[in-house]
What we know:
With about 80 residues, the protein is mainly β. The chain has no helices and two strands. The protein starts with a strand and ends in a 14-residue tail after the last strand. The protein is about 0% helix and about 30% strand. It is elongated, with a radius of gyration of 24 Å.
Amino acid sequence: xxxxxxxxxxxxxxxxxxxxAARSNGYVLDGCxxxxxxxxxxxxxxxxxxxxHCHRNFHRKVEVEVEDRVESPIISINHxxxxxx
Length: 85
């Protein structure tokens, strides 16, 4: 079976790193584990997290390499005949 391998990157935004105590030289995070967009794609609301209400830039960005596999169909040349020749 022949296959073509194309590599793409999937971008995920994980835990929020917004430090709420930065003004007082502290370190307090809200505990948000993964970015969840508030609005529909390609709207301004899609950049705000529904869980913590922070901008997407506060969340840790991770790029994961994904391999797309496009497989070609298998054609059998030794197909059994049904009946006599």
